[in-house]
Amino acid sequence: MAQASMQQNERLTRLSVSKIRTCQESTLVTGRFAVRSKELPRDYKNKDGKFFFFEVGDKTGNILVKYWGGPDGEKTVELFNSLKVGDLVEISGVVEKDKYDGRLGIAINEGANKIERIGNLSDLVGKAENASEYIPTSDKIEECFTKLRKYANSIDDSYLRALVLLFLGNPSFSEAFKTVPGTSLNHHNYLGGNLEHTLAVTELCIKMCEIHPLDRDLLVAASILHDVGKVKEYVAEVSIELTDEGKFLGHVHIGIIMISEMIRNIPQFPEETASKLLHVIVNHHGAPDTGIAKGVRLPEACALNLANTLDMRVKEFVQVKLEMADSPENWVYARNLGTDIYLK
């Protein structure tokens, strides 16, 4: 089988790939990429051996790699264990289209193609590698932050305005807030993603204030602060990963702690205003977390929840279309959305 694969590879167009976005179907590609995630090895159904999938990426995007091991399953497991999230790997394999969702992936066959661990990217940065080449980054960070500060300054309530500006005016917080990703998968999963999401949610909330008699100051403050906990939930040095604090608590709980601590730094901050603000923020995912939130009890909480969901959901569709922009297909199945998406 390996010999047949090698003969097939000789008939394929050879392409040295420096960016994920340049991968083309039915080409034999070679490139260096960061390991984003791994799936545990699985057994073949009708033969001996194992296979596993892992995702690699660079600043232009991510792509799934399918490693097809030989009959020695232990050898495949050993290779799997040697690869860590955040590693830099050099791979060569055939770019293939997934028969289910139409997305491109790289197939690596043991004995026919190459996979080599170069090392942990964080250890290589500054020596031979630049981390910015491997993490997608928003090109609108400063523009978004400037707009967000403008909305913060538009808050009339002096206590809420002071609270928001204490966050945005803190150099260490603002630098982290500008670059932290929104998630690790599916939407806003790039440096600056959370900032883009926060701005979009804030602008949606402002629009709702023009339609409905909502407390604009409360809603704008809550929309700007609703995801501040993500600066402690995610770390994105060479790949996007959850911190220990993020795994234990999650960004909503972390954010409530951060905001409560900041409120204590503002003399005579009204207790009712604080309670309303924290209520709106703790419920921005809608369904109450057991023992933490009591459910949506203010129209502003409803507005923030729906604005948050709207931006998140639409962004998932938009990112799929952007990732598949070069596809000749009219339709693609998006696994994360559970539906076919029209691309044209």
Number of strands: 12
CATH structural class of the largest domain = Mainly Alpha
Order of the strands making up the biggest sheet: 2-4-5-7-6
Order of helices and strands: HEEEEEHEEEHHHHHHHEEHHHHEE
**Average residue-wise pLDDT:** 88
Radius of gyration: 23 Å
Contiguous helical run count: 13
Given helix and strand content, the structural type is alpha+beta
CA distance, first residue to last residue: 39 Å
Q: Give the biggest sheet.
A: 5 strands, mixed, barrel
- Whole-number tally of structural domains: 2
* CATH topological fold name of the largest domain: Hypothetical protein af1432
**Helix percentage range:** 40-55%
The share of residues in extended strands comes to 15-25%
Give a quick precis of the structure.
This protein has 344 residues and is of the alpha+beta class. The protein contains 13 helices and twelve strands. A hairpin with a 6-residue loop joins strand 3 (42-43) and strand 4 (50-58).
